Amino acid sequence: MATLWLTNLPDDVTDDEIAGWLEKYGFPRCDEIARVPGDGTRPGAAVRFDEVDEEVLRRLQPRIDGVFVRNKTIRAQVAPPERPDPRR
Amino acid sequence: MGLFDRLFGRKPAEPADPLLGKALDRTVEVVEPKLVVLPDWKRRLTPGVAAAIEFARAGAQQLQQVHDLSAAGWGDDPLLRAVFANAESVNRVLAQMRDLQRHFRSPNAGDEAYGLLGMTFTTRRVLGAALVGDQVRSDVERTEASFSEHRIPAVAADADALRQAVGVRIFNQLLLVATKELAKADERRTSLNVERAMLQARLRMLESREGALLDEGDDAEDPLAQRAELQRRLDEMTAAMAQYGAGAEGLDRQLDIVRDTLLSATTTIRIAPRRLRLDAMNTVLADADGGGMPVEFVCVQSPEMSRAFAAVRVRRADLPAGGLSIAAVERTL
Fold first, then answer.
1. CB–CB of B176 and A56 under 8 A?
2. What residues of A are in contact with residue B182 (Cβ under 8 Å)?
3. ipTM of this complex prediction, to 2 decimal places
4. pLDDT of chain B along its 333 residues, tens only?
């Protein structure tokens, strides 16, 4: 499982649009999109891929990073793997 | 479903099938779009892509038996009883499947949908009680099957469309395997580059200090031998890097990696029907033992995972409201 962070998305973008952009650039179908509105200036989304490894996502990430859509330059980063909670 | 999906129907893909071109285009789109600059990339990739299509088609056609997935039918279907702990867990899984709910929300959706139910499949050996001869023994080794992480990753209006969607999905997974091989090659090339730079730096240092080391006359290792050893390792490193090529030659190598990975998919990934006889506790029984019920599913095994799949039919009426559990709200109140 791996997660792609997308930031600086257009305000009114839908989940289907995000999934469509990613598939257009050769990404596999994503399994979940969690929206991160923040303060509203640079809305983001965490896109989860259940059957994709981090190394594969790192290879695909440059394809979407810097793409210009509706007056916005999308930024993409591969999220670091989750660390186990030391308190558990 | 587009033209591309027809490749995964009942008929095997012909080598001259014009739809093969679409599969080739999708392959480079996913694995490495730059491959199209190579002059004969289509001809060179065709054997791998054709093998991948045939593999995906054969895998999808194994989903012939369709199970009715509903909480009400949980007790009647041996497979559902084996893979779900109880009827409530069927409802819980159905409520979480957003693709299924999206399908039913679409205006053209009928009253039933077909889906691919996938689960992580594991077996483990445990000690349990069993009747051996006339005695009940508590230390008999048994195998238990376990199904977890239920998902419905593909949904379609009918069984044929589902098999086509599954074929496309298998094909896309194979492309991801090829992409992963390219990522590994990238990583290896980067690490070889770093190692080579370090060896070159050490060699330069040795050359500049060679005279000084010779003057010391202590028991330090012979600088000439050290230098020869470094040069030997450097040559090895350069030869290893040549395997990955650079520039256009690098793309050539990448194309070979993609083709070879797709050709070898049948040896690394296994899609086959699996039949188990399970009792109510999911203990695996031998056919000769009698008892229990036979359960059949399609098992996909790769070096990284083992998952069980079955085709299911879901009626709109059996789909619980997603995202709102009345019982959970009542408990909270």
1. yes
2. 59
3. 0.82
4. 444 555 565 555 555 566 789 999 999 999 999 999 999 999 999 999 999 999 999 999 999 999 999 999 999 999 999 999 999 999 999 988 888 888 998 888 889 999 999 999 999 998 877 777 788 888 888 899 999 999 999 999 999 999 999 999 999 999 999 999 999 988 888 888 899 899 889 888 888 876 555 555 555 567 788 888 888 988 888 888 877 776 667 888 999 999 999 999 878 889 999 999 998 889 898 877 778 899 999 999 987 778 999 999 999 998 886 545 555 556 656
Which member of B31, B172, B180 has the closest CB to residue A55? B180
Residue A87 lies in a domain: no
Chain A CB within 8 Å of residue B151 CB: yes
User: Are residues B278 and B285 in contact, defined by beta-carbon separation less than 8 angstroms?
Assistant: yes
Q: Do B29 and A26 touch (CB under 8 A)?
A: yes
CA distance A38 to chain B (A): 23
Q: For the domain that residue A53 is a member of, what is the CATH number?
A: 3.30.70.330
Handedness of CA B34, B36, B41, B43 (dihedral sign): positive
Q: Nearest-CA distance from B234 to chain A in Å?
A: 28
Q: Which residues contact B327 (CB under 8 A, 6 or more apart)?
A: none
| Cross-chain CB nearest to B180 (options A26, A53, A63) | A53
Would A85 be classed as within a structural domain? no
Residue A20 belongs to what domain range?
A: 2-78
Please report, for chain B, the start and end positions of each structural domain, with discontinuous segments joined by +. 183-246
CA A50 distance to own-chain centroid = 13
Please name the residue ranges forming H helices in A1-88. Answer: 15-24, 54-60
Structurally, chain A folds into a number of domains equal to: 1
